[in-house]
Amino acid sequence: MTSSATIADTPAGRGPLHGVRVLDLSAYIAGPYGCALLADQGADVIKIEPPAGDNLRKYPSTLETESRAFLGVNRSKRGVALDLKQSDAQQVLRELARRADVLVHNFRPSVPARLGIAYEQLQEINPRLVYCAVTGYGETGPLKDKAGYDQVLQSMTGMCALQGKPEGPPEILYGSVVDYYASALVASGVASALYERERSGQGQYVGVSLLRSALTLQSARMVWAEHEPREVGRDMRSGGITGLHPTRQGWLYISANTPHFWAALCAKTGLAELAADSRYDSVRKRAQHRAEIVPRLHAALQARSALEWEALFGEEVPCAAVRTIEDMFDFPQVQAEGMVADYQHPVVGRYRGFTQPIKYGRTPGPVPFAAPTFGQHSDNVLAELELSAEQIAALRARRAVL
């Protein structure tokens, strides 16, 4: 695998993907965050942006100098800006690909060949390259050239219909869940292809689509037995009292599906008689009698705040008070697990952000660093291709490199 001088050379700084070089040509979330996950594991990730930059840089943000979304999705990468409409820039990219282990992009299927970077074209110069394409709908079929977006796929694949309340309108799941799950598929697909390459010596094409991601998320719903009618209950919600409930102050999520948890919930809320009632002794029965149980539970929960109930229930009743994301920065469990790191950005300055999505005991990986500014590392990366300062200056003059 390709060595990189940018990754810490000490054993403690080597993640399991130490020595792997990744070219990230993708934009938005799915591809870029998949590459960030690879960087978390020790890969040297080079983010390559067009002259206009990644569109995520332009997303609304209360930060004045950079998009919060871009910072969160592109940690621990070096940044290069290339105008791939120019032949000089295409040649630079091909040279980078010759030395790389992985290339990730999210172009529509018809675009890579026009840029000279289709899998078959790059395979000729680097047979060991793992080539990951993130698309909206896949590489074949009537929608293959259609742009894909998270909430478009949510709406298409039944997620919004099932998220909405019965007889109510469909609802979006905010938080880009399809994109982020696709990013996990990118990271795992690339990692397994690298593992297979160690045995075969050959790279391969890895395809991830938002359509695959949206349906993978719904594997438990995507079961249709022979002779079943079309309209059957496919959701995983248990109903009954499991869900969000108002308290004296704040909201509390309660999950009490097992007999043990149900009994504990009733005992601690002063509703022991419900636990003793055979009409409510199963999840299905409690769902059927929800109109009888929930008002009594809500009345009992008014005695304390959500945080007080959370403390009182402890380990006996699975629950959580509803918190804001800001609460997570200093949340004791998050701090204990080392999930927040300090970052220093050339423009934004110091900020705190997420780190360590996976914990490794022997190879924890390098210290994370801030997402790059536009073209921040162009000169350094080009110098690693053994281009002279004069050659780099000429590329900049022609604006093939920015």
Walk me through the topology.
Layout: E1 21-24, H1 30-40, E2 44-49, H2 68-73, E3 77-81, H3 87-99, E4 102-105, H4 111-115, H5 119-125, E5 130-135, H6 150-156, H7 159-163, H8 177-200, E6 205-209, H9 210-216, E7 243-246, E8 251-254, H10 259-268, H11 272-275, H12 283-288, H13 290-301, H14 306-313, E9 319-321, H15 332-336, E10 340-345, E11 349-354, H16 378-384, H17 389-397
Parallel strand pairs: 1-2, 1-4, 2-3, 4-5, 5-6
Antiparallel strand pairs: 7-8, 8-9, 10-11
Structure in words:
- The chain is α/β, with parallel strands linked by helices and 402 residues long.
- The chain is 36% helix and 13% strand.
- It is built from 17 helices and eleven strands.
- α1 crosses α8 and α8 packs across α9.
- The longest helix has 24 residues.
- The radius of gyration is 25 Å and the shape is elongated.
- The N terminus is likely disordered.
In short:
With 402 residues, this protein is α/β, with parallel strands linked by helices. Helix content is 36%, strand content 13%. α8 (177-200) packs across α9.
| Contiguous helical run count | 17
Largest sheet: 6 strands, parallel
- Calculate the mean pLDDT score and round it: 94
**Rg (CA only):** 25 Å
Strand content: 5-15%
Report the helical percentage.
Answer: 25-40%
Structural class: alpha/beta
Topology pattern, helix = H, strand = E: EHEHEHEHHEHHHEHEEHHHHHEHEEHH
Stretches where pLDDT is under 50 for at least 5 consecutive residues are 1-8
First-last Cα distance: 28 Å
How many β-strand stretches?
Answer: 11
Strand order of the largest sheet: 3-2-1-4-5-6
Shape: elongated
